[in-house]
Design a protein that fits this description.
This protein has 134 residues and is α/β, with parallel strands linked by helices. The chain has a single domain, classed as eRF1 domain 2 (Nucleotidyltransferase, domain 5). Helix content is 34%, strand content 25%. The chain has three helices and five strands. The protein has a five-stranded mixed β-sheet with strand order 3-2-1-4-5, with helices on both faces. Helix 2 links the parallel strand 4 and strand 5. Helix 1 packs across helix 2. It is globular and about 45 Å long.
């Protein structure tokens, strides 16, 4: 039985629709990642440009990336058994996930990457059904 997966993803959540010969299932992976807030020192520089004025600390950026990495790993683990994967969503998360799948040796299973806006769960399930069942 062939297993196909379609998933809508952004940096906050991934909605996963798995289609098999027995029917379809919908799952959810939540990242719990906070949007990056600007620190007071990150405001545009005042005065002349000087490298010493730039914030030297990128700890927040690294923490954000590490958190996203764990989120993408959880998504990859939940779709590992799929033979075909359709990735769609509004932002950069879909491209990041595609890279993560390629790094995991699953890049050949990606059948498409599409940019779409926000969708309801029903719209997502319908899109996946149309792609894999018709």
């Amino acid at each position: 039985m062939k297993t196909s997966v379609g998933l809508w993803i952004d940096h906050r959540k991934a909605i996963i629709v798995t289609v098999t010969g027995r029917g379809e299932e919908m799952g959810l992976v939540i990242s719990n990642v906070e949007k990056q807030l600007r620190r007071a020192g990150d405001s545009p520089l005042k005065g002349s440009y000087d490298l010493q004025q730039l914030p030297a600390d990128d700890r927040r950026q690294r923490a954000f990336r590490q958190h996203l990495g764990r989120y993408y790993d959880a998504v990859v683990a939940s779709i590992r058994d799929a033979e075909a994967v359709l990735i769609f969503g509004p932002g950069d998360a879909k491209a990041d996930l595609k890279k993560r799948l390629a790094k995991s040796g699953l890049g050949g299973r990606v059948v498409g990457v599409e940019t779409v806006d926000k969708m309801t769960d029903r719209q997502i399930a319908s899109k996946v059904r149309k792609r894999f069942l018709e």
